[in-house]
Amino acid sequence: MNRIDATFRTLGQTGARAFIPFLPLGFPTLETSGMLLDALERAGSDLVELGVPFSDSLADGPVIQSAYHTALAAGVTVSRLFDFLEARQRRSDAPLVLMCCYNLIHRMGIDRFLALCARAGLDGVLVPDLPIEESGPLRSAARGAALALVNLVAPNTPVGRARRIARASAGFVYYVSRRGTTGVRESLDPGLEAAVRDLKTHSRLPVVVGFGISTPDQAAAVAAVADGVVVGSAIVRSIQAHLDADPVASTEALARRFKEAVRPDPARPFTHSSRGRGDR
Amino acid sequence: MKPPGTTRTSRTLPDVAGYFGAYGGRFVPETLIAPLEAFERAYRRIARSGPFRARLTSLLEDYCGRPTPLFFASRLSRHLGGCRVFLKREDLLHTGAHKINNALGQALVAQRMGKTRIVAETGAGQHGLATATASAMLGLECRIFMGTEDMRRQALNVSKMRLLGAEVVGVDTGSRTLKDAINEAIRDWLANVDSTHYLLGSVLGPHPYPMVVRDFQSVIGREARVQIRRAQGRLPDRIVACVGGGSNAMGIFFAFLGDRAVRLEGVEAAGQGLASGHHAARFVSGEEGVLHGTRSLVLQTPDGQIGQTHSIAPGLDYAAVGPEHVFYQHQGRIAFASVDDGEALAAFRLLTRLEGIIPALESAHAVAHLLNDRGRPARGEVVIVNLSGRGDKDVPTLAEAGNLHPS
Q1: Is B287 in Cβ contact with A103 (below 8 Å)?
Q2: Which member of A77, A79, A179 has the closest CB to residue B31?
Q3: Residue B34 and residue B226: Cα distance in Å, rounded?
Q4: Are the beta carbons of B30 and A103 separated by less than 8 Å?
Q5: Which CATH architecture has domain A3-261?
Q6: pLDDT tens for residues A242-256?
Q7: Is the per-residue pLDDT at B173 higher than 90?
């Protein structure tokens, strides 16, 4: 069983939900990202999503784009990112999932990319601009490399297609809670709960929700229906706001608030774990 | 009935997944899959129906001014030493470029799909202007994304689009040009897929755009084929067109793909020179990659970050190229050359003086190719140049830079 499956299994035993912060690598520098990742792990993150800076990241809103451009301007390259991840000491067993636009993978070649991921100790990969029709080669190679290729489902994905996507996913299914790009939103989509419940009846994998979750209250509301909550732009915005002070301490404090918001709720029934998932 | 000059290959590509051989496809966030599939279905159902074709044809004739003339450029031909150069006058179309052929076609499809809002990108402003025009005529809300660098150098088109009721949104990221405008248009579409159609302006982007835009632009070549036969009693030896994304080029080439004796040449922007690194010569320095949803040749760093490009012509200033062009280049059917800023500027002035036609800086690249050693026509050769747009938009910027007259 890989680390992602193990994490969700452990969480499921207590009815807890995964808190999954997103961290753009190399923002503002690789050294600071290392400290930020340590802080996120100390704060009890259950899984961390790591963003690889890309010049033309279509699915991202202004907050994450700006972080990526800062990182690229500072000279961060894909190979330096992998060197950094390989050299770093982990502070926890939280699985690490890389979010990477497809051109970067295509450019270095799937085999080399997966080899670098494995060497860096990554547990999964999420490619936001690679729909299932185009992901065959990466999917089979990732399976061979024991790396989870996580698929995304959008609010407008038809049910039949959502089932296919969920069946082809590994690790978990990432449900995009809002149309549009990543970013901070005032409110959550009213159809979210029904959509996630519907998806969970079609999948044996945990369902994680992300895009637009910006406050602990929103995270708690999502945690009531999903197995995990991704918080991206809110964390990046906090790093940005504290660049001149202590971004590490403030990010750790923010992460603890989100972690608290998704803590186990004794009244909450078990979800996926009660359905007797076998090892995959 | 089978249109003249098309082959089995050209009629059956792209395949069901949107591929031209190894190029094309649909590399987009999941949120865009459903709207792309809906657009493809609507396009196949609506745009190929008799009533739609009749309506589009009538608008292209009465509103836009089709068919455009095929003009024999006698003084340019003499200047080049006895060849016969014909200009396909897309510059004479309403809004001043070939872009209206596609903008009108897609806007009509969008309207029949029940969309009330259009978003589009623009580089030189010609596609934005055509889209704003079609939107005004059909009563659709319109938002155009344009790089701030392009807004500066194509200010006239910005004013025109606003006059037409479009909202023009400046894009201040990246190189502040076409690539960045496409990013923002796609992001807008991601957030508004129910109400909005993304009216992409070139043979780029995820399937079905390369096919749809090609189909709407292929009227150029169908007309030219009939016209050159009438004028010369035969097909041309060569057809030359500039290639940014490649819509005017694919538009004129498509009807001739099956005519193996007709040489097809695309001309891309060498900017400040191929050695300078400041250019948009994808067929020279591009590597296979994925940009804006399609697999193609992309100017990029060794790391896979998208490269910065430069051309004096904003419409050619783009890091990737339409996938169908790459496919036919690999097949040996379309050849590509490049022309730098200075050569394009010289051709811009020359055509103006010799023929009384001010070409767009983009189209001037195609003319310039005939003037340099690599593209000079042989004696007696019959050449068609697709004059894709007019140069009014470029005059103020060139005047300001002191570039209207040779120094």
Answers
A1: no
A2: A179
A3: 39
A4: no
A5: Alpha-Beta Barrel (3.20)
A6: 999 999 999 999 999
A7: no
Nearest CA in chain B to A107: B304
Residue B318: is its pLDDT beyond 90? yes
Question: Which pLDDT score, from 0 to 100, does residue A190 have?
Answer: 75
A131 with B30: Cβ contact below 8 A: yes
Whether residues A176 and B179 touch (CB distance < 8 A) is answered with no
Q: Any idea where the domains of chain A sit in the sequence?
A: 3-261
Using a CB–CB cutoff of 8 Å, tell me whether B331 touches chain A. no
Adjacent-strand bridge partners of A98: A50, A125
Tell me whether A138 touches chain B (CB under 8 Å): no
Q: Are B278 and B272 in contact (CB under 8 A)?
A: yes
Is B141 assigned a catalytic role?
no
Closest listed residue to residue A251, CA positions, set B170, A259, B132: A259
Average pLDDT over chain B reads 95
Of B169 and B177, more confident: B169
Q: Which of A103, A105, A209 to mutate to test the interface with B (most CBs of B within 10 A)?
A: A103
B66-96+218-400 — its CATH code?
3.40.50.1100
Q: What is the mean pLDDT of residues A117-123?
A: 95
Chain A nearest-CA distance from B387, in A, is 32
Provide CB contacts within 8 A for A33, sequence distance 6+: A23, A24, A25, A26, A27, A84
What does the domain layout of chain B look like in residue ranges?
A: 19-62+99-213, 66-96+218-400
Tokens of A161: 């297609």
Q: How far is CA B394 from the centre of its chain?
A: 17
* Cα dihedral value B325, B327, B329, B332, nearest 10: -140
Domains B19-62+99-213 and B66-96+218-400 share a fold: yes
Average pLDDT over residues B58-84: 97
Task: Write down the pLDDT at residue B19.
Answer: 98
Cβ atoms of A103 and B286 closer than 8 Å: no
Distance CA A149, CA A170 (A): 5
Distance from CA of B117 to the nearest CA of A (A): 16
B121 flagged as catalytic? yes
Contacts of A131-140 spanning 24+ positions with Cβ under 8 A: A131/B26, A131/B27, A131/B28, A131/B29, A131/B30, A131/B33, A132/A164, A132/A165, A132/A168, A133/B17, A133/B25, A133/B26, A134/A102, A134/B25, A134/B26, A134/B27, A135/A168, A137/A110, A138/A105, A138/A110, A139/A168
Does A129 contact B28 at a Cβ distance shorter than 8 Å?
A: yes
Confidence of residue A104 (pLDDT cuts 50, 70, 90): very high
Classify domain B19-62+99-213 at the CATH class level. alpha beta
The C-alpha R_g of chain B, in whole angstroms, comes to 19
> At residue A204, what are phi and psi to the nearest 5 degrees?
-90, -10
Residue A220 to chain B, least CA–CA distance (Å): 24
- Residue B291's SS3 state is strand
